[in-house]
């Protein structure tokens, strides 16, 4: 199947060595609940891990602890097999690209890139060779003498990457460096990060709140919320099989349906909706079903919904045009409190259901995930 | 839902806006809107006037510097002459005083910046609001105490029977003459200039994002390297601005050399005072004053030439 | 305030002791006072004065009685003498009304103003006929200024530093044990003439040959003297910064009154004797000029002099004054001709003509 192409099998996983190991790390600033609670995970050598979460989820704190800017209240961080808890940032072999890049404005692009080598007392000949190589790697040859303010946003990003990598650190950390870029440049740079990372094979930990970025660039994703790791998985696994409601709602667009879990599915009023319940979900307890917008089908009549176990009549309440696709917001008499959000893309026709048009919607039972839901 | 929430969401026209409205109305009576494109000049006028008067005074000083004093009538000579300038150039005393003032200004700049930099750095970087407030209070307190009063304070503290010598006396040290010498003048100047330097440095340091220093650390710099390669170069505009202000204020200072120098540590300003008020030789005094203005302008001009006016945070970048 | 009280008490003693004192006071006023021709009185006249003991004495001896007699209030302007000078010069040059009516000034400074021609002639003051020669400025025509008392630049010393008695020579300044503990005026005023003698020169050679003076001052420079102005000396004695100083006896007297153990002497080489005086700047309205002159005329009456000069501890310019009890026979309070033997008087004209040169030379040595 398509999925298995992306997923590495467990055997090949085991062969890989661990570059970073985080064990039971907690950060408590002493105000309310801890910023990070008991985080444990490994990062494989040469892989690209993204820590994804909303602001305040603890993802940046986690990154800063790995970088050494903050000391964990509890727990141990190991880099390349060596515990680094006692090492200050400049003693850890870490290259970091900062949110606002933090380029040195008084230095040229080349001097910025040379800086970490100079700090390591590398000899001048070696410095100039490496600076050239890395400027080349980030496609900035010819810009060596420019100061940061003479470079475009994308070029500044490239200088920051080259500076973080030139001393060949064990680990590259990315602290939302793309957040401030416009969308087109951001998507271009995402691919650049990916290319450079693969070319050098450097282990990378990226922090972002942008789910799309996480899915595009990462080998692995950790989703965080309220200081807790919610799920650690490959991008496809995360998207297809969210562990809990938070992950399901944070990644992708879904329609949520509240009800009670029964052996046959989710009971909503007099409706019984089949679905696949997570192992944690308990029978008879309040539960919430989630169906992704691309898995809901829409058509003028039943003929468009071939194979759907659930079908309903509805009426189009809103149409959102996004260019490559449409989002319909549909209300159904049988489930009056629910606004179904449905992606629609018809490669054969540009016809659009007008607002108010009667439509029929449906989905496959396996596509609805059912989670525990404490009301 | 006809409850307080409705009241709370109602837009209330802020009092400040009301005040501004009536001020605008009043202003338009005095200065009609139709003239608004000239408003910039109007606002500039007082400053221009002030500078104009200053220039006028300077021209008068220049004029009187070209007359010598006739001691039989105590009137300035009729004819124009450059004799006063010749007197200055040929006088070992004035050259010595000039050199002393310049050296004093340079030393004061060095010591003041050495002390002000860490102070400003901690002021800007401390995460404790209490520490910051404390530092600000300590900084501003001397501003409320005039220069002369402060100098008197030092006379009392550093005097032969002052607090410092009293403490030294406790450990059996004979009173030491701490006052009335060159180091005492420099000490007084540094102490006087410190708040100015800190206030000029603080914004320059605030402009350096914390992230830049964090970055330097993550790239392998220890604190000294980070200071030397990153913070100091980035603080350069502030350092130059503060240095320039401290240098010009010290170069032209009167009170500290007069009070802490014991009479034998004159700066140029003291020499000018003597000519104007002690020997009534306005011509020579004027010539000295112009020499001081010229030296001050030369220093400022040189700094601007070398570092660019942008270094003071004025005008365009670099 | 001690001085003020002294002045008052002395005044009451005078009233009780001098028969017909009141009549004498009246007689000092010009007869014209009773005539309709007397010019209109201004509400006040402004007299520039030195602060502290100085203005207290003037107020008690001259200003207050003058107000009592004439009804004209006297305001004291405490601008420094050398700072009011350019203002007065500028006012006269620009034909403005000067900011003060009467200037209390050193005779040297006043001579500069007289040479510049900004002073009113005071020769017609009726009370001048009762004064000593001291009242007449030397080397000037008429009375552009009236000297009102003399003073001596004494050698003041701390008695603890001289257990064997007062120093007898200015050469005491060169004693190594006083290094850094001696003081002079910062323009050298008062010191040049005794230095000329102490350096082995002759007073007659002033101003032609003052090598001896400069040689001696050079030696003094090696002793690292403090240089200051009147208030500094009092402070320095008080704070134990100095043991020896060349200063006006009045400052030493003030320090003594403030409880500082201090004495003074006129060494064998002699001391500079100089005078202060009063003058009226040109440019006053006719009536104000008249009353300003009347103020000075009153200041040289015996009664005014007795209180004013005793407050300062200085000898006045009218004969028959009673010196303060503690200054009888004091070398800084000359009365008899032999008292003046050790005092050096040089024409103010010579002084002002050479002041710039002397000043520059003194600075050259001291700023080294």
In short:
The complex is a heterotrimer of chains A (375), B (318) and C (368). Chain A has 375 residues and is an alpha+beta fold. Helices cover 25% and strands 34% of the residues of chain A.
Descriptors for this entry?
heterotrimer; A: alpha+beta; Rossmann fold; OB fold (Dihydrolipoamide Acetyltransferase, E2P); 2 domains; 21 strands; 25% helix; 34% strand; B: 318 residues; mainly alpha; two-stranded antiparallel ribbon; 2 strands
Outline the structure in words.
The complex is a heterotrimer of chains A (375), B (318) and C (368). By secondary structure, chain A is α+β, with helices and mostly antiparallel strands. Chain A is built from 10 helices and 21 strands. Chain A has 2 domains: 3-93 and 169-240, 3-Layer(aba) Sandwich (Rossmann fold), CATH 3.40.50.300; 253-372, OB fold (Dihydrolipoamide Acetyltransferase, E2P) (Beta Barrel). Chain A has helices spanning 2-6, 10-15, 59-67, 109-119, 124-137, 153-165, 183-200, 211-217, 235-240, 245-250; strands spanning 18-27, 36-44, 48-52, 74-79, 82-83, 94-97, 171-175, 203-208, 220-225, 228-233, 254-262, 265-268, 271-273, 276-277, 286-292, 297-299, 310-321, 326-332, 335-344, 358-363, 369-372. In chain A, strands 6-7-8-3-9-10 form a 6-stranded mixed beta sheet, sandwiched between helices. In chain A, strands 13-12-11-15-21-14 form a 6-stranded mixed beta sheet. A 5-stranded antiparallel beta sheet of chain A has the order 16-20-17-18-19, with no helix packed on it. In chain A, 41% of the residues are buried. Chain B is mainly alpha-helical. Chain B contains 15 helices and 2 strands. The longest helix of chain B has 34 residues, at 92-125. Chain C is an alpha/beta fold and 368 residues long. Chain C is built from 12 helices and 10 strands. In chain C, strands 1, 2, 3, 4, 5, 6, 7, 8, 9 and 10 form a 10-stranded mixed beta sheet that branches. In chain C, helix 1 (2-17) runs antiparallel to helix 11 and helix 5 (107-116) crosses helix 12 (348-366). At the B-C interface, helix 5 and helix 14 of B face helix 4, helix 5, strand 6 and helix 12 of C.
């Amino acid at each position: 199947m398509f999925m298995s192409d992306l997923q590495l099998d467990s055997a090949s996983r085991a062969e890989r060595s661990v570059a970073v190991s985080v064990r039971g790390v907690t950060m408590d600033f002493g105000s309310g609940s801890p910023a990070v609670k008991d985080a444990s995970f490994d990062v494989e050598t040469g892989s690209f891990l993204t820590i994804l979460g909303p602001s305040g989820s603890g993802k940046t704190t986690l990154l800063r602890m790995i970088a050494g800017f903050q000391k964990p209240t509890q727990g141990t961080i190991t880099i390349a097999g060596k515990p680094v808890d006692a090492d200050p940032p400049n003693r850890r072999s870490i290259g970091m690209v900062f949110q606002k890049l933090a380029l040195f404005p008084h230095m040229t692009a080349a001097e910025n890139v040379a800086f970490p080598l100079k700090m390591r007392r590398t000899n001048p000949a070696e410095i100039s060779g490496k600076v050239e190589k890395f400027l080349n790697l980030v496609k900035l040859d010819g810009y060596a003498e420019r100061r940061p303010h003479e470079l475009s946003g994308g070029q500044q990003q490239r200088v920051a990457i080259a500076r973080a990598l030139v001393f060949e650190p064990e680990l590259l950390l990315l602290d939302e460096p793309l957040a401030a870029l416009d969308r087109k440049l951001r998507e271009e740079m995402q691919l650049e990060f990916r290319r450079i990372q693969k070319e050098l094979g450097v282990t990378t930990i990226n922090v972002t709140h942008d789910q799309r970025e996480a899915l595009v660039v990462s080998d692995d994703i950790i989703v965080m919320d309220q200081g807790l790791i919610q799920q650690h998985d490959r991008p496809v696994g995360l998207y297809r099989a969210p562990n809990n409601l938070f992950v399901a709602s944070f990644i992708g667009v879904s329609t949520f349906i509240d009800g009670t879990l029964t052996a046959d599915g989710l009971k909503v009023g007099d409706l019984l909706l089949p679905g696949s319940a997570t192992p944690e979900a308990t029978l008879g307890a309040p539960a919430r079903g989630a169906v992704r917008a691309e898995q809901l089908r829409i058509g003028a009549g039943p003929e468009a919904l071939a194979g759907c176990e659930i079908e309903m009549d509805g009426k189009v309440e809103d149409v959102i045009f996004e260019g490559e696709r449409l989002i319909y917001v549909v209300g159904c008499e049988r489930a009056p409190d629910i606004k179904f959000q449905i992606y629609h893309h018809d490669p054969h026709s540009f016809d659009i259901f007008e607002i108010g048009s009667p439509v029929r919607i449906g989905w496959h039972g396996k596509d609805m995930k059912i989670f525990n839901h404490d009301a | 839902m006809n409850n307080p929430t409705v009241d709370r969401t109602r837009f209330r026209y802020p009092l400040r806006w009301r005040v501004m409205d009536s001020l605008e109305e009043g202003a338009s009576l005095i200065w009609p809107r139709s003239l608004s494109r000239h408003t910039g000049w109007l606002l500039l006028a007082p400053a221009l006037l002030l500078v104009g008067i200053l220039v006028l005074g300077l021209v008068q000083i220049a004029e009187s510097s070209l007359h010598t004093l006739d001691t039989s009538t105590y009137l300035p000579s009729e004819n124009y002459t450059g004799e006063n300038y010749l007197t200055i150039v040929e006088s070992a005393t004035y050259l010595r005083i000039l050199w002393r003032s310049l050296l004093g200004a340079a030393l004061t700049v060095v010591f003041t910046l050495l002390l002000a930099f860490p102070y400003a750095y901690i002021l800007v970087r401390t995460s404790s609001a209490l520490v910051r407030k404390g530092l600000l209070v300590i900084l501003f307190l001397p501003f409320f105490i005039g220069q002369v009063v402060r100098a008197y304070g030092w006379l009392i503290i550093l005097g032969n029977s002052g607090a410092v010598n009293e403490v030294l006396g406790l450990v059996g040290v004979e009173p030491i003459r701490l006052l009335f010498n060159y180091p005492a003048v420099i000490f007084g100047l540094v102490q006087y200039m410190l708040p100015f330097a800190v206030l000029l440095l603080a914004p320059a340091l605030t402009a350096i994002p914390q992230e830049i220093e964090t970055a330097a650390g993550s790239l392998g710099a220890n604190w000294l390297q980070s200071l030397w390669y990153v913070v100091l170069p980035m603080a350069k505009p502030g350092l130059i601005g503060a240095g320039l202000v401290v240098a010009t204020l010290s170069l032209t200072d009167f009170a500290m050399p007069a009070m802490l120098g014991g009479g034998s540590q004159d700066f140029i300003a003291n020499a000018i005072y003597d000519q104007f008020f002690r020997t009534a030789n306005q011509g020579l005094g004027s010539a000295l004053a112009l020499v001081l203005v010229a030296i001050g302008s030369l220093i400022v001009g040189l700094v601007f030439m070398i570092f660019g006016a942008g270094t003071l945070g004025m005008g365009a970048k670099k | 305030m001690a001085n003020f009280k002294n002045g008052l008490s002395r005044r009451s003693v005078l009233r009780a002791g001098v028969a017909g004192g009141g009549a004498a006071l009246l007689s000092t006023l010009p007869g014209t006072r009773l005539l309709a021709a007397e010019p209109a009185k201004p509400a006040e006249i402004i007299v520039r004065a030195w602060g502290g003991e100085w203005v207290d004495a003037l107020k008690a001896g001259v200003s207050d009685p003058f107000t009592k007699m004439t009804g004209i209030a006297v305001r004291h302007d405490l601008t420094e003498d050398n700072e009011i000078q350019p203002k007065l010069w500028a006012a006269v040059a620009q034909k403005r009304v000067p900011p003060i009516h009467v200037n209390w000034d050193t005779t040297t400074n006043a001579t500069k103003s007289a040479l510049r021609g900004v002073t009113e002639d005071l020769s017609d003051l009726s009370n001048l006929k009762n004064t000593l020669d001291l009242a007449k400025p030397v080397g000037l025509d008429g009375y552009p200024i009236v000297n009102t008392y003399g003073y001596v630049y004494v050698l003041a010393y701390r008695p603890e530093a001289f257990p064997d008695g007062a120093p007898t020579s200015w050469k005491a300044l060169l004693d190594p044990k006083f290094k850094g503990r001696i003081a002079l005026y910062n323009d050298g005023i008062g010191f040049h003439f005794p230095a000329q003698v102490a350096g082995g020169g002759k007073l007659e050679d002033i101003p032609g040959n003052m090598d001896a003076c400069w040689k001696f001052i050079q030696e003094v420079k090696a002793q690292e003297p403090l240089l200051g102005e009147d208030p500094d000396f009092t402070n320095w004695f008080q704070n134990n910064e100095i043991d020896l100083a060349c200063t006006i006896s009045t400052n030493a007297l003030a320090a003594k009154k403030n409880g500082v153990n201090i004495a003074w002497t006129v060494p064998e080489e002699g001391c500079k004797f100089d005078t202060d005086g009063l003058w009226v700047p040109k440019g006053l309205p006719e009536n104000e000029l008249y009353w300003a002159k009347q103020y000075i005329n009153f200041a040289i009456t015996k009664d005014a002099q007795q209180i004013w000069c005793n407050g300062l501890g200085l000898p006045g310019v009218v004969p028959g004054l009673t010196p303060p009890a503690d200054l009888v026979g004091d070398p800084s309070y000359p009365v008899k001709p032999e008292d003046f033997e050790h005092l050096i008087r040089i024409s103010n004209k010579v002084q002002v003509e050479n002041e710039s040169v002397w000043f520059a030379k003194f600075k050259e040595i001291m700023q080294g």
